[in-house]
Amino acid sequence: MSLPSRGILADAVTLWRAERELLVALAGMFFVVPMLGAALLLAGLDLPATEDPEKLRTALTAFYTANLPAILAINIAIDFGGFAIFNLYLQGGGRTLGEVLLITLRRFPAFFVLNLIAGLFFSFGLSLFVIPGLFVVARTWLAGPALAADPAAGVLGAFREGWRRSAGLTGFALLGLASMVLFLAFGLVIVTGGILGTIAALIGGAQAVAPVSYLVTALLGGAAWAALALIRVAAYRLAGAPRQGI
Question: CA dihedral defined by 208, 210, 215, 216, rounded to 10 degrees?
Answer without folding.
Answer: 110
